[in-house]
Amino acid sequence: MASRTIVVHLSRSVRRRLVVLSRKTRQAVVWRRCQILLKADRGQPVAQVAAAVGCDPSTVYRTLHAFETEGEGLLRPKSSPGRPPKVTAKAAQELNQALAKAPRAMGRNFSNWSAGKLAHYLGLPVNATTIWRQLRRLGWRWRRPVRRVASPDPRYGPKKGYVRRLRQAARRGRIHLYYADEMDLALLPTISGCWMRIGQQRQVDTPGQNQSQYVFGAVNAITGELIWVVWERKNNVGFRELLKAVRAAHAGDALKVVIVLDNYRIHKAKAVGELVRKFKPHLRLHFLPTYSPQLNPIERLWRHCRRNVTDNTFFRSMSRLLTAIQSFLAELAGSPETVQRIVA
Predict the structure, then answer these.
(1) In the chain, what is the straight-line distance between the N-terminal and C-terminal CA atoms, in Å?
(2) Within 10 Å of residue 144's Cβ, how many Cβ atoms?
(3) By CB distance 3.0 to 4.6 Å, which of 73, 191, 200, 321 could disulfide with 315?
(4) Residue 188 belongs to domain with CATH number
(5) 96-127 pLDDT, tens digit each
(6) Do 255 and 337 belong together in one domain?
(7) How many CA atoms lie within 13 A of 136 on its CB side?
(8) 123, 169: one domain
(9) Which domain holds residue 113?
């Protein structure tokens, strides 16, 4: 049966747009529709148009009829809705609400959710991987939590508030505020995550007999000035040397030096008290609430030192370890801005 001829009358402006669009488009569907309309405008039979474009005559008929009703809107291909999601919006909301609560608070006999347990709890007939992807879309991530130390100090609130007021006074230039603490140095390396080739586990040497020394340090809360003393023992003698070094850094300065530190017994030794009274009124110690390391920013500086010096590295002698830590601390002390960023 001979094919019919359907003539489409295009205005000059429409034809020009179709020619330009057929040259620029990267979508095969749009190009094919433009060519069908342009050839039909010349009066070519449907079969000839289909052969020239490389499609079935029924496609030509559908395109021409659609152009009569939709016009140039036909050239904007409609996106396919695709396969319906396995997890509906309602199920995603239930998933978000369930994960926000601990399993035992919801009557379950386990303490941590897994993707499989969530799917089973909500009655979702999907794979655990699908739940995992949905949780990422909802803003959940698999991370290792950190321990939170709760201070039993009954005066935790007032002491914390007083430290805040000390920082405000230091910002206004009324006092010099330092945070002080000790860092243990040992030949036994500290271990942390590092890059390794797949299938290979890095091994770190350990000493036959461990040795230890200690760094007594203080950091200025406002300027980032770093003062430290390396000592063989973790005793009040080393701590007193640190106090003398801090006091010497502000010799002749009328401003009071306040040092914030924890309640370790060497900080409250009788000899320390005598030294503080000797330096009075230019030196004062303020003790943090018990079990509150998060209130002492110098702890972050010690973590930074371990990460960059002692983690995953075996120093074969204590002298090499001390040389490395002294060099790193000296480099930090030469850049107070870096120290401020670490302890802030």
Answers:
(1) 85
(2) 4
(3) 321
(4) 3.30.420.10
(5) 999 899 899 888 888 999 999 999 988 989 99
(6) yes
(7) 6
(8) no
(9) 89-137
In a domain, 31, yes or no: yes
* CB burial of residue 284 (10 Å; 0-12, 13-18, 19+): middle
DSSP-assigned states of every residue in 231-294: ESS-SHHHHHHHHHHHHHHTTT--SEEEEEE---GGGG-HHHHHHHHHHTTSEEEEEPPTT-GG
Cis peptide before 152 (omega within 30 of 0): no
HSE at residue 110, side-chain half, CA atoms within 13 A, is 6
Q: Are residues 280 and 170 in the same domain?
A: yes
Contact present, 179 and 260 (Cβ < 8 Å):
yes
184 and 217 both lie in a single domain: yes
Summarised one tens digit per residue, pLDDT across range 59-101 is 998 888 888 888 888 887 666 677 788 888 899 999 999 989 9
Tokens standing for 89? 């919006």
Looking up tokens 């017994």, which residue turns up?
Answer: 265
Cα distance between residue 127 and residue 119, in whole Å: 8
**pLDDT value at residue 65:** 87
Same domain, 30 and 115: no
119 and 173 both lie in a single domain: no
- Number of domains making up the chain: 3
